[in-house]
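Predict structure. Input: Transporter, UIT1 family, 434 residues.
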Amino acid sequence: MAVQIIALAVFAAVFVIAEIRRTHIGIVMFAAATGMGLLVAGLALEDIVAGFPVDILILLVGVTFFFGIAKSNGTIGRLVDRALVLVGDNTGALPLTFFVLTGVVSAMGSPLGGLVMAPIAMSVAHRRRIDPMLMALAVGTGLSAGGFAPTSLFGIVTWGTAASAGIALNPMTLLAVAVVANLVLLLVAHLLFGARRRSRSAVAVGGGTPSTGPVEHGPAEHGPAEREPFRGVHLVTVVAMLGLVASVIVLAVLGNEPDVGVLAFAFGAVLTLIDPENGRGALKEIDWSTVLLVGGIITYVGVLQEIGAVDLLGDLAATLTVPLLAALVICAVCGLVSAFASTTGILAALVPLAIPLIQQGGLAGWALICALGVCSSIVDVSPFSTVGATLVATTVDPDERPRMTALLTRWGLSMVVLGPLALVGALVLPAMAF
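Output follows.
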């Protein structure tokens, strides 16, 4: 147990030290993971390095490169122009619109499939001067809600695990809880970030400079840019974008989990062969800082999982003698670990820990499993996870990315505490009274 506790303490200390020193957390965390793995845990170097999330690197690089081409050649700008003309002055409806669109795509088999909406949503936010934090949370909550559909991975793992343990849980109940919880979060996000408008003129998605004067609607939103025609390269890019979304949906419907990053690389390769100049320009859109941030932290989390530190947290929660307190702690542990690791993996690993509480502690099984599942998902907007990292990487204005990283960190980690309190209080506690 001493090794696990030391590793957890070092994990927390690296965050504090890197923040105080204003250094890149991912780089320091990767070094710490190597040191802890070799010197304290006795792991082989290849096992430690194997924890680096190559799949997330492929996702981030593939998605940002593909949509970087669409941005560089002007396709996204034209699409956003026309979308904003259709929306008109109803800017307030845009976050809810992207919540629904992301939720629908995420419900079709793979929750991460909803990430194909992130670049478009963040571009719309940039053009309409919506706070990118609000739009990021709209996408994140939509992905979380749709992921618990009976047809999607989060839902299948959660209610499937419950069913295998003999716990009655209606899949539609799980979906309803996820949708309501995430809509509440979106409302909170709107209250916190909805009033802020970007302090720059409305400019084309591909560029522009900050405005030093009062904020006003510029010509880029209502002027000639709206009438720029789609040329051949733009039509090809639109077909590729539709192909990417369709591939994700079709593969999910056929029972295969689509790899969005690999698909984005494939379509991006086609586009860069057709349009080499904009393909080269899209390389600068890849956010390597975020890749390193996520890579370093997840590598350390891999060491924690390898030495049993994650299981230790779950086991300690399960030994608590007060069932309601144990439920709170298990939900918090699920949220904390999921903020840095695979939500699907955490659900599969830690949902079974709730079974003894349900069987012996008099807790309503459906309520606790719903709370546990949603608590594991609502933290995914943390920039240390796949979803949050993608939201940071697709933020259009590079100057906004440090702010997005800080705010998404606070939001994600606050959900580790507030999520269990709210969901256990709203589901488990009332169910105990009946």
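The chain has one domain: 3-198+218-432.
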